[in-house]
Amino acid sequence: MLTIGIDVGxxxxxxxxxxxxxxxxxxxxxxxxxxxxxxTAWKLYQDILTKHKLEQxxxxxxxxxxxxLVEFKNQISSEIICHARGLSFLNPQIKTVIDIGGQDSKVxxxxxxxxxxxxxxxxxxxxxxxxxxxxxATILETSVEDLSEMAFQAEEEIDIDSTCVVFAESExxxxxAKGYTxxxxxxxxxxxxxxxxxxxxxxxxxxxxxxFTGGVSFNKSMKSILEExxxxxxxxxxxxxxxxxxxxxxxxxxx
Length: 255
Known about the structure:
CATH class of the largest domain: Alpha Beta
Strand content: 15-25%
CATH architecture of the largest domain: 2-Layer Sandwich
Shape: globular
Number of domains: 2
Strand order of the largest sheet: 3-2-1-4-5
CATH superfamily of the largest domain: ATPase, nucleotide binding domain
Helix content: 25-40%
Radius of gyration: 19 Å
C-alpha cells in the first residue's frame, strides 16, 4: 500500500513516498521546479520509482501551484488541506499552521479532528513571502542562504515601513545610502515579513501549538522573530519543505 504525494510549488517541487501499512515515510526528494514543472514532476516521480525498484504505486495525489500539470496523478488536492494533513500526521497536537513559501504565505486554523476550520492566504503580494528575501539578497549582493545568520548579527534595530516589495526596494536602497549595515537591513526585512505573517495569524481565531512550515521555515532568524512576536515556540519538522507533499501522500483512494 504505497502512495506518492507530489507538491509542485512555484519555486520548488517535492515528492514523498509513503507506506500506508507501516504508516511511515519511505523516502522523499525535492528539486527546483524550473520553467517546465510538468517535466520536473515526472522526473521526480520516475527517479523515486527507479530508486525503490517500483513500477507504480497504489495512488498519486498532486498539490501545489502546478498540481494540475501532473499527468500521472489520480487526484489533486489543495495546498491548504495537504499542509494540514501533513503537519497533523507529524504532530497531532498542532492547531495552527504557518506556511511561508516562495510566492505566497498561508495561515491555517485546525480543529481537534485536524480538519481545516479557516485559513488566510497572501498570494497577491510578495512582501510576506520568500520572494522578498530573494529580492533583498540580490540588492545586498549576498545569498538567500546567508540571510538568516546575517540577521542574527544585526548591529541595531530599524524598521521597514513599506508594505510592498517594490516600495521596500527603494526604502532599502535609501537605508544603504544612510550607512546602515547589511546585517541591520536584513534584520529589518525579516521583521517586516514576520509582522505581515503575525497579522495573518491574528486575523483568524487561532490556537497554539503552531507549526511553521514551507521553504522559509529553514530560516532560523525568521523562526526566532516569529516566536518573539507571537510569544510562543513554533514546531518545525526537520524537513519542513516536504509537509505539503507528505499530506498529499496520506490520501488513499480519494479518502
